[in-house]
Design goal:
By secondary structure, this protein is of the alpha/beta class. It has helices at about 15-35, 60-70, 90-100, 115-120, 140-150, 170-180, 210-215, 240-245, 250-255, 275-280, 285-310; strands at about 50-55, 75-80, 105-110, 125-130, 160-165, 185-190, 205, 220, 260-265. It starts with 16 loop residues before the first helix and ends with a helix.
Length: about 300
Amino acid sequence: MSELSVPHLLGIKYLTPEDIELIFNTADNFKDVINRPIKKVPSLRDITIANLFFENSTRTKLSFELAEKRLSADVINFSASSSSVKKGETLIDTVNNILSMKVDMVVMRHPNPGASVFLSERVDARIVNAGDGAHEHPTQALLDSYSIRERLGEVKGKRVLIVGDILHSRVALSNIFALQKLGAEVMVCGPRTLMPKYIESLGVRVEYNLDEALKWCDVANMLRIQLERQDIKYFPSLREYTMMYGLTMDRLDRLNRKDLVIMHPGPINRGVEISSEIADSNQAIILDQVENGVAVRMAVLYLLAEQIKHG
């Protein structure tokens, strides 16, 4: 299979395992490209991509922008916080204005779940969901699974633990979908107040004791505590959260887990969900995730652009 089964990347739930493998194999090629002295390829030279970020994002936006430029696409950046959206312009108005500039692809982050699906049904451009509310963040999940594959050889059969604020995390949901499609076992761990009610219906294990969870897993993905999404207090204090759910060298030493692979989607709250000592250790693949993010996003953009060309 050399083509994606979907016209947009709206969420992991719409992808087949074959789609994910195709994205990974394509990313392997681009990883070679970005490690060469000349890091650009002309693959998207006639493609125009608009980055629409209705929510603040530094890392994801930079990663997409770098991916687009490495592929030689023409890039339009649109930051809604400083634009006419503040004056009451709707999502459709904004997009129509941008599409009148003849854009082929839109990479969008939006605070409302389902915004990218809404858009895909109404505009004639390929849509990439760069995060919609607390719903999905597909490229993050793809780069996370890709990074596990790179470190451990494959994802199938691996035991992956996701720790932290599962309730507000689009990363957790997309990761669960991607890992299950690739044949991994998934466990979530965190305070009861940060566990969604529907979580067990997704076929994941639930554990509230971090030490027990760490004994079980091959990989621990430590999520950031999303204080900006929490309108009420979900736990007494950050200090108590760190005592219960923070990953430290002491904790790993006590459990004798020197082989555990540690991940974090970033940005890291050092000393809260993960200690600096762990974040900077050889067990952590956090910087690999950042590098792989560019290669995986290049792969997604390239594969969607191929569909445009073959139209």
